[in-house]
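Sample entry (314 residues):
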Amino acid sequence: MKRRFLGMFTTKAQPFSKWWQEFRSEVIVIPMEDPLDPIVSVDEKVLTVRTGYHNRRNTIIIPLMLLFTFMPLYMFYDWLPDFESRQEYAYKALASIERQKALKQLRYGAEETERYARALLNENGEVTWATYLRAKEVEGRLERFLESFVMIGSFLLFGIALWLLFLLKPRDAEVYFDRERQIVYSWRHGRVGAAYFDKMGLIENQVGINIVLQYENKNQKGYRPMAIVGIDTGKLGFHTEADTTYPLAQILAFMDHGKEAVITVPSFNREPAKLFWRVDPKPENFEARVDAALKAEGDLVYHYQTRRPKGHAI
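Predicted structure, serialized as tokens:
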């Protein structure tokens, strides 16, 4: 069954129900004690799956965060001028040039060295930031010196941004598949999203499974389709259709036949992803807001089939 008509460039969604019969006839789901990622929990009523943000966070964001923290600090330490050694150099250079003048044996480049050394010292014979920058200008390296500072600052700002992402972004809420009501729902940053299972949108591309639900706008003023991006299968990227077929078949089997189609134990709960300071809190009046999102379904299917839905990503 070909579900990615544009391969990795697939951006518009299709109803998952479009391929149900093919999944049922072509994919055999084997009940297991551990139903594998991205499934987090299974019980009589609900199966939940998690996004792949914890994988991307631990294998991409944290290493980059450490790299762009310590690398610019090391570069800054190497970039920072040593005024004491520059002052000592200026005194020695000027003394050497005075001896050469006395002997009338000026070496090649002595004039440039003298200008640089005199520019380093102020009227008190000290090196300051002002005299150091003046000397760099005399040397013809001021622009390069300042460019290095800007580059170090850019690296450090990127590192700070990654630290903020690491510390402030909570662990994503799971996506809930409710078999009794045949609905799908979740939330992100206080916004509730839901859809009937047969209306749920699906995009499969290189980042994994992307599920489209009817989400609240800011301040709960209206609704629009939004994608839960990057439900992966234990790998960071470059997902193929083969990678995403079995997890989707497991979800469909659960919604069709219950937990016995997916697990061999009374219930299943996967250990939560670690290294998170907090989780995305469940919104207030959640059940009522799920019902409201379901009632506001409207042209959800047409909308996500004809327009690229915005996504909750990272």
